[in-house]
Amino acid sequence: TPDQYKQAIYAHSQRSVVSSSFPGRNYAALADWLIRPNAGAPSQEADSWRQPEHGLIVLHNLDDRKLGRTRIFTSEETAELTVPRPQQGKGHLVFVRGFLCPAWVAELGSRYRIDPEFFCRHLDFFDVSAHHSCFNTPSLLNTTNNIIHVHVSTILTDVGYSTTNLYDDSVSHRGLIREQMSKYKRSLQKAASCGDSIVRDYSILSDRYSVIEQRISICVAENGDGWVGLLCMDNGRDLDKSLVGPWNQDTGPQTNSNMRITSLPVIQHHPKMTWRKIGEVDTSLRSSINPNLSTQAGLPQSISTLALEYPSLLSALDLSKRAQSDPLHALVPVFAHAAFSEVAFLNLVDELMDKLTEPLPLDNFQRETFESLQHFEIILERHAAHIRHSIRSIRILSERSPFVSSTNPPLGNPASAESKDSAASQGYQQQLSSFSAIGTLQDHEDLLERCQRLLSRVHSAKTSEMNRAMILESRRAIEQSERTKKLTLAATYFIPLTFTASLFGMNFGVLGQGDLPVWWYIVVAVPFTVLTHLFYSWDVETLRLRYRRLLQTVKGH
């Protein structure tokens, strides 16, 4: 039951290192949140400006013999989740749209026997200090075989852009953004409402563009004779209606009275997208969630409709038959959407790199450029790690797929010869599409290669900037040595003249302090200055060598 699921997590969190080989300290924050009353419930002030309804859970029955395959539940309908188990060899897809409340975590976890580690890692922003004090994540490679994290990027830009904004504004605000993101993640546990959108990372790329990163956590588990895929999406309500973060605050270089932050769509491609209605959400589903949903999105995202359009999307992409019994093909549109969003991000970084690496004089070092390159390096390394994880997840799912590997049966049902024959009869064009198992893997491998090329480009640009800094510093040192040389030459005249003046003690008749005429100073100072220059120009080592040669010559004669 849901209560037993909560109690099991809480009991594990209380295990200490002295009483168990499996201490549960990393579950402490999750357990406290699950048993805390009213956790995830919106406050009265928050309810006044958030959407009145939100389709939190979207359940798709992939068995085409079932009527009413799609069911939608709001945050308050946990008791209504009374759906039958999947048919033999078939599957269910359960989308969670936004921040989960404890009741739904317990309901989904108990109903589908989800490993609590899945929720612990999905909600890893809970009590960050306590969570990372054990340094348990990232964990061993095989601990993530059934926990898939797919990352989706959304590019934000401004309308009414003015060229008066300076590029170094974005550099100066990055430190402030990091502080605000830390504060935002700490406030999620207490201030976020069920269904709110979550942002994992927010980065300012330039004075005009920024990017938010969200996650889709996926767990594929056996359920009776079939299987279930649980997809916890960070995307829920519109960002303008969710917990406030630095992307919708009046801070940063984009802030201007004539500007409005908006999001760019994720452009996808399929060979049949022009001839078929691919990705159009059923109006009945849209109205059942919120009749004014299309007009209320202040900061719309392409991923917002993914859960609602999924059955029609699978059908239009010729994936319905395979998706019924194969989790990999059922999840292909999710991987493809993330890949296309990564394409937009990498293209943007590539364009910004062109501007940062424009040909400049060797001594023209710009500190803002170097800091931006460091910022890009950190972001690209994080994205490369995400892509590697997705590639590994696709390969693990392909090992279970009867349509990709003939050695392993699908989860919940042995592979039959008929299914293999039907898979082999599919057209070659479908196999090469970005919405196919093979195509998705190839696309992710290409994205990883592109990301690594961009990283190499960033490293080269950093090296060039460091060389510029060294050249500039060398030129400054040369200029300093030239000024020192001039000062030294001036001192060679000033020192003997000063010494001569101090030697006479200014006892000249013209000054009324002595009987010596002034010309005596000139007679003494000129020879003394000449002797000083001769001593300065003498090279002791050269004189010593000449003296030795002279002695050898004399002895030879």
Strand content: 5-15%
Instruction: Note the gap between the termini.
Output: 117 Å
What's the helical proportion of residues?
Answer: 40-55%
Number of structural units classed as domains: 2
Name the poorly predicted regions. 44-49, 159-167, 251-258, 290-295, 406-429
Helix-strand sequence: HHHEEEHHHEHEEEEHHHHHHHHHHH
Largest beta-sheet details: 8 strands, mixed
Shape: elongated
Query: How many extended strands?
Result: 8
Summed up, the helix count is 18
- What is the radius of gyration? 36 Å
Secondary-structure-based class equals alpha+beta
- On the 0 to 100 scale, the average pLDDT is 78
Can you offer a commentary on this structure?
With 557 residues, this protein is α+β, with helices and mostly antiparallel strands. The protein folds into 2 domains: 38-470, no CATH class; 505-556, no CATH class. Helices cover 49% and strands 10% of the residues. The chain is built from 18 helices and 8 strands. Strands 1, 2, 3, 4, 5, 6, 7 and 8 form an 8-stranded mixed beta sheet that branches. β5 (201-204) and β6 (210-223) form a beta hairpin. α1 runs antiparallel to α2 (28-35), α1 crosses α4 (102-112) and α16 runs antiparallel to α17 (519-537). The radius of gyration is 36 Å and the shape is elongated. The relative contact order is 0.09. Mean pLDDT is 78; it is low at 44-49, 159-167, 251-258, 290-295 and 406-429.
